[in-house]
Write a structure and sequence with these properties.
Largest sheet: none
Low-confidence stretches: none
Radius of gyration: 24 Å
Shape: flat
Order of helices and strands: HHHHHHHHHHHHHHH
Length: about 300
């Protein structure tokens, strides 16, 4: 198991280095593009050349890449072109805000999805299964921008029980998290629920489950002790992939509710061509994607003994 972990971590580091190289080439491959982003669209050629020489962008790409990697590893992410201050002062606060939103959403979404998926898979083809399946498909088919408008119309304008924005201007507020969490949960839980349902339905037809039923074991004991663990093997990887989506895929939801998080920061940086902020957001998104996939692979190996003992 230790060798497997070390191999996965080595692969993770290699992927991060390759992606970091691609990210650097895309954003900093053309020094004049960086200079124009910093100085503005009306800067003269002389000003661009002077800025390039002053900041060392006239050196080879190879040298600049390793200097950039060294700065990133020491926590120096550069200065934001938009905010005119270090990226660190903006980036970590926004990332923390999204971590709160993503953490609450992940907890609610996974619990709801697993419960509904197990309930549907336990009685395949029943009315219970059909209702849960239709509901899961319906919610997943509605994009976030549509559900955000619908839920805001119901809870903000019609019932007037929830705030329409989640800017947290008066400090952290649980109430302001409700609508963003609800939008993300409705969109994300259906896929996990359907995967869990399919896996659970397959497990319930296996010989060892039938044997347990014939032995007269309590049905709840059969589900919790025998069926559930095997039914979670397939959905586990999907669940881990949702973490990456909750980091970089919440742009629409954060923008819709004015939530000052990572997704909104990434959108703003991309629209205003803030190169150093884009690089920081890109590295964070890639790290989370690679890390969660690595954890997913290791967890899948743990849950499935047939893979673990190969």
């Amino acid at each position: 198991m230790l060798n497997l972990v070390l191999r996965r971590l080595g692969t993770m580091v290699l992927i991060m280095l390759v992606v970091a190289l691609l990210l650097f080439l895309i954003n900093e491959g053309d020094p004049r593009l960086i200079a124009r982003s910093v100085l503005g669209p009306y800067a003269q050629d002389e000003q661009l050349d002077a800025w390039i020489m002053q900041h060392g962008y006239d050196r080879s790409l190879f040298v600049r890449y390793f200097e950039w990697i060294s700065r990133v590893l020491t926590g120096d992410l550069g200065d934001s072109i938009i905010y005119k201050r270090p990226v660190n002062e903006i980036f970590w606060d926004r990332l923390g805000n999204t971590a709160i939103l993503a953490g609450v959403t992940f907890l609610v979404m996974v619990v709801v999805a697993l419960v509904l998926g197990v309930l549907a898979g336990m009685k395949e083809g029943s009315t219970q299964d059909r209702v849960i399946s239709v509901f899961s498909i319906a919610t997943t088919s509605v994009p976030e921008y549509a559900s955000a408008v619908i839920l805001a119309g119901v809870f903000v304008y019609w019932l007037a029980v929830l705030p329409g924005t989640s800017s947290m201007t008066g400090g952290f507020s649980v109430v302001e998290l409700i609508l963003p969490v609800l939008v993300l949960t409705l969109y994300g839980f259906g896929y996990i629920a359907r995967m869990t349902r399919a896996s659970m339905a397959e497990v319930m037809t296996t010989p060892y489950i039938r044997t347990a039923v014939l032995k007269g074991l309590p049905y709840r004991h059969i589900i919790m002790k025998h069926a559930l663990r095997n039914a979670l093997i397939a959905p586990f990887t999907v669940i881990m992939l949702q973490i990456n989506w909750l980091l970089s895929g919440v742009v629409v939801t954060e923008f819709a509710f004015g939530y000052k998080g990572f997704g909104a920061l990434l959108l703003e940086a991309a629209l205003r061509r803030d190169i150093f902020l884009i690089e920081a957001c890109g590295l964070a998104a890639v790290f989370v994607a690679v890390f969660t996939q690595t954890v997913g692979d290791l967890g899948y190996t743990y849950l499935n003994p047939r893979i673990r003992f190969k």
